Request: fold
Amino acid sequence: MLKVQIKDEIREFDEATPIENIAQEYQQAYPSRIVLAKQDGRLRELFYTVGSLAKGKSETKLDFVTMSESIGTHTYLRSVIFLMLKAFRNTESPEIAENVYVDFSVSNGLFCRIRDHEVTEEMLERVSNEMHELVRSDIPFLKRTVSCREAVDIFSRQGMPYKKKLFEYRRASEANLYALGEYQDYYYAYLVPSTGYLKEFRLFKYKDGFVLQRPTTSSPDAISPFVDRPKLFETLRKDSEWCDSLGLNTVGDLNDRIVHGEAGDLLLLQEAIMEKQIGDIAQSIKESGKRVVLIAGPSSSGKTTFSHRLSIQLQALGLRLKPLACDDYFINRDQYPLDENGEVDFESIRCVDTELLNKDLTALMNGEEVALPSYNFLTGEREYKRGRTMKIGQGELVMLEGIHCLNEELTSSIPRDKKFKIYISALMQLNIDEHNYIPTTDVRLLRRIVRDSRTRGYSAGETISRWASVRRGEEKNIFPYQESSDVMMNSALIYELAVIKPYAEPLLFSVERDSDEYLEAKRLLKFLDYILTIPSEDVPANSLVREFIGGGCFDV
Reply:
């Protein structure tokens, strides 16, 4: 028998007891469905026995992971993708089933394509019905360890060229595959125990593909309504099509380029395309005749470097950007609003003196000279310093950059047709393989870990611990306004993960095993392990990547 601590209770269980049985016993004590466990700080799939990790110990500690946590919803998402792919294999021809490609996240779903085949409503209805039948059958996901050589053979037989290519560069000699019947697949993190856990999902036709929806942390027991974001979708699709044209869709494709000595050419091509995009935005600003440029985007999107490069492009067109810092319009710190938990909400728009900002903007647009405030972050008070003024002349534009810049409330005194709004985010074009997409949040988190260590002295653990709060602020203050932008700029560089990897890995390895952040650090390390390295020496000094790894030519 094994003593098991669950919450504040200590129970005894036979070592052969499946963790799933214990989870079912405690399910009522949790607000949403249990999908994983943490045993002595390690993530465990529920089909393991409670004694499999204890290995001779007389005591162990067990915690449960639910759908109210991001680890839980990502586990559900991987599992429902596998379920969907199995249903395609059961109902459609091999030519269709083998060409299902999980492309990118859109709204609260995943956009998928069937390459070289049309998606029909009838097809999705067949697949959805089969998924429900598989759920009712409650079939276990069987996990087994195979050699990487055997995995490559399996993926070749099943028509998975990107997975095959991924495993050709694996350093490990073995891999864990999952099976539903004869169909086998690989996922770089855990699954739920069986298909019976996957009762909530939705498939529907969208554009030239379809969307797969599943529950989220904010709605763990039901499917939230789909929020159509056409501008964001078109930005993502355009970059996805560009990757198609290059034959560069997955990490395996990138590794191929690196191995064959083509990384330098790829780097130059990507930087040239980004420079053209920034130049096109500058041309659009000039043609619009608008005099207020507003830039917003989530954390670690490269807003500062983008602003510098945009300013240079505008100067080449005879225009000049004059920056106005939103931070200088903060109200005094003792007046900051509180959030629903009674804590100071530093990211609320109520922290900004919007009345004063709009008064100064109006005066600037009228050709007046304005005395600019300066916010003292040590005292938490706004100050005015002698000689700190601004006046907008002919050929000059005002630029504001900050999280609230797409929110009309921030600049309400300036008519909408006088403002040029830019949304920027790192929307990674690559995926790991056909069925494992790379969340854009992972790219931004890795960027922030590297930059925070270099510029602020934060450990990777400290950055990871703050990330959930940062994400909540983005969901509340940025994403609801992104579709109001005039243009969207994708700041992700197709080669950047290969450059960031050697900077991020040592920081992630330093996260303590007994810390709350260790599991996330371990997940990111496993993700980076798939990617070969590109040395940073050839990255241009004005590249967006330089904002994070250092060595750039801009003051960021």
